[in-house]
Write a structure and sequence with these properties.
Layout lengths: L16 E5 L6 E5 L1 E9 L4 H15 L2 E7 L14 E9 L12 E4 L2 H7 L8 E5 L5 H6 L16 E5 L1 H8 L7 H5 L2 H12 L5 H10 L4 H20 L5 E5 L11 E5 H16 L3 E5 L6 H7 L7 E5 L3 H13 L3 E6 L1 H17 L3 E7 L16 H6 L9 E2 L6 H16 L2 E7 H5 L1 E5 L19 E2 L5 E2 L42 H16 L8 E2 L6 E6 L3 H13 L5 E5 L1 E3 L5 H6 L3 E6 L4 H10 L4 E4 L8 H13 L1
Parallel strand pairs: 2-9, 3-6, 6-7, 7-8, 11-12, 11-13, 13-14, 14-16, 15-16, 21-22, 21-24, 24-25
Antiparallel strand pairs: 1-2, 3-5, 4-5, 10-17, 15-23, 18-19, 20-22
């Protein structure tokens, strides 16, 4: 999609209803500026697919959007139980938005468990579409309903639409040679068709998707398309849905360009490929599958035509070991994982620090400790990224702020790794990885030139005049050592984890040399060129809210709310966490109060307080879910007034 310049401010989460008008038919159409929809059902009901398809059609229509998939860790959780509920929330609007929304305006509940697990998030007056076929006594008892919530008055404050989704789907597919069980599987497409009618979503993309997905099973493709059309037609003809809604394209929300919907992990994958092309180096991924990072391995394995090699190792340690070997061999090397995998990779990250080779370690954070919450989000690996290795082993740390920003963060991490010959830790998280938003596809000319010069010959002259290659003779500006590809004549050098002698790279146990090498490696990281921190402070506020990573959307939405209400507050967001921007201390010193919201117990706040002696206030959440804008707005208002 292509759109024009402008960026309206994010408003409250409630959908604003505009004028009604009558189309050519008999039903009213209401204009809204935003809508938040949540699809919920069993993990086998296809809620993620349904949400993905609605999102894709919404992106093609031109709305700004933000999504929040939420699913169980189990591959197939027990059907009809609360732990087995899977949901997908989509916030779309005719203007610039930043979060998936605090509370849904519409809940589609495929069974009693989905209703019970989500009803607490649904505000009074919201619409609830319920699959009545699933509200049997047994199904309701399984989740603790003593009486039928559709009949006992407990939902009187909502606009409830009881729809026998399963029955209608089976009836619509009776002409197909399918068993009842097979036909019932298409009820998510019926629901998608109904919601697509309600919000005037395009249909061509979903029909094409289904034909492609089931190309080898045309009967299944035709059945799903028929169920999709049946849902659309049901909305058009039933008396229960008297109104449909329009949310206009976000024509002024974006700079002019070509956009596509993209998730964080997909953007990260594309960023890695772009970095390898800009560096003119083959891309090598050594990885072990782990939630929520596995999608990067899956995506990169599809792009051999770009010189990408992927290796699915037998464990985390083998994955990073192979990647470090590829770095030694002259590739742009990457390993992907989550928090538990970073712990296992820590020794090899330390080896990469000692060898001073470029290596990207991508950590898609999730709830911990140990196995923790594999499908829930958290940003509690910051201190592990900073200090989770033996000895003094400093590593640069970079964090994207939105799903689309994962592309730029990957390119930036590659720039640092290649320029300074160091492993780099990139900290994304499950919220960014699985969430999606519009992304402007950049022109090639906008990307940085990442080409490197490999060592080609001797670089040092001994006292006797002999020319030799010293693997640890450094660039005076970056302190990076030369990168010598194995097999280059005359550049043989010793490699390993034991301390090296400065310059020559020989094994050294000399105390003075070790002190020098430790300080030099630290100085190299401290000297990395990172941009100054930008501060958004239009009114000269006394309170600054400082964030990092995926808290950007909720923080910015909260700041917009406060400013709309007449409050004065400043905002800054860190991409570079090691080293910090050089002006961070000066920025912090300008404000009476500094508030740091984090999805951990205060890790950035700990670093800031220790380094800058600033009495930063920490606001923390570790429930596996992202912050809500209203929640942060309340906290920040209290900080301003306190």
């Amino acid at each position: 999609m292509t759109s024009q310049v402008s960026s309206p401010t994010e408003q409250a989460d409630e959908a604003v209803v505009g004028e009604q008008r009558k189309p050519a038919g008999t039903k009213d159409v209401r204009r809204l500026d935003r809508v938040i929809i949540r699809f919920a059902g069993d993990s086998g009901d296809g809620m993620q697919l349904t949400g993905d398809r609605f999102t894709s059609e919404t992106a093609s229509f031109g709305n700004d959007l933000s999504t929040l998939p939420n699913f169980p860790a189990e591959i197939r959780a027990p059907a009809g139980t609360l732990p087995g509920v899977s949901s997908f929330q989509l916030h779309f609007a005719d203007h610039d938005i930043l979060t998936p929304g605090d509370a849904p305006n519409v809940l589609v509940a495929m069974n009693p468990a989905a209703l019970k697990a989500n009803i607490a998030d649904v505000p009074r007056g919201a619409e609830i579409i319920v699959n009545t076929d699933e509200f049997t006594k047994r199904a309701m008892a399984k989740v603790g309903y003593v009486t039928n919530p559709l009949e006992d008055g407990s939902l009187d404050g909502y606009s409830v639409h009881p729809v026998p989704l399963t029955t209608l789907t089976v009836e619509a597919l009776k002409e197909f040679d399918l068993s009842r069980k097979e036909a019932e599987r298409s009820k998510n497409m019926f629901a998608l068709g109904l919601l697509s009618w309600m919000y005037h979503r395009p249909t061509e993309g979903t029909e094409k998707f289904l034909k492609t997905k089931f190309a080898k099973k045309p009967e299944i493709a035709a059945a799903n398309i028929a169920a999709y059309h049946a849902g659309w037609n049901f909305g058009e003809t039933t008396e229960d849905f008297a109104v449909s809604y329009e949310v206009a394209p976000a024509a002024q929300a974006f700079p002019t360009g070509t956009y596509r919907n993209i998730s964080g992990n997909l953007a990260l994958s594309y960023g890695l490929i772009a970095a390898s092309r800009q560096a003119d180096l083959p891309l090598y991924l050594g990885s072990y599958p782990i939630t929520p990072a596995s999608d990067i391995l899956h995506e990169l394995s599809r792009h051999k035509n770009f010189g990408v090699r992927t290796f699915q190792a037998e464990d985390e340690i083998a994955g990073i070991g192979a990647a470090l070997g590829a770095a030694f061999g002259g590739s742009l090397a990457v390993t992907t994982t989550s928090g538990p995998g970073v712990a296992l990779k820590s020794e090899t990250i330390g080896l990469a620090v000692s060898l001073e080779l470029p290596l990207l370690v991508i950590d898609i954070q999730r709830g911990g400790p140990s196995t923790g919450l594999p499908t829930k989000t958290e940003q509690a690996d910051l201190l592990q990224a900073m200090y989770g290795r033996n000895g003094e082993a400093p590593v640069p740390v970079v964090a994207p702020k939105t799903p689309a920003d994962c592309f730029d963060a990957a390119v930036e991490a590659a720039r640092i790794a290649l320029t300074y010959r160091t492993p780099v830790l990139l900290l994304s998280d499950g919220y960014l990885a699985n969430g999606s938003e519009p992304w402007r596809i950049p022109d090639i000319e906008e990307l940085p030139d990442l080409r490197v010069q490999f060592a080609q010959g001797p670089n040092h002259t001994l006292d006797d005049g002999t020319e030799v290659f010293w693997p640890y003779k450094r660039d005076p500006q970056t302190l990076a050592r030369p990168w010598a590809v194995p097999g280059t004549p005359g550049l043989e050098h010793r490699i390993g984890g034991i301390e090296k002698q400065d310059g020559s790279g020989n094994i050294s146990y000399d105390p003075a040399n070790h002190d020098f090498m430790v300080r030099t490696r630290q100085a190299k990281i401290d000297g990395i060129d990172v941009p100054d921190l930008d501060v958004d402070d239009p009114d000269g506020a006394g309170t600054l809210v400082l964030g990092w990573g995926s808290t950007y959307g909720p923080i910015t939405a909260a700041v917009r709310r406060l400013r709309t209400a007449g409050e004065s507050i400043a905002q800054a967001h860190l991409r570079h966490l090691n080293p910090f921007p050089r002006n961070l201390g000066a920025v912090l010193g300008r404000y009476e109060k500094v508030v740091i919201p984090e999805m951990n117990l205060g890790q950035l706040a700990t670093l800031v307080r220790a380094k800058y002696l600033v009495d930063a206030r920490s606001y923390n959440q570790v429930n596996g879910m992202p912050f809500k804008a209203e929640q942060l707005a309340t906290v920040l208002k209290e900080a301003i007034d306190g």
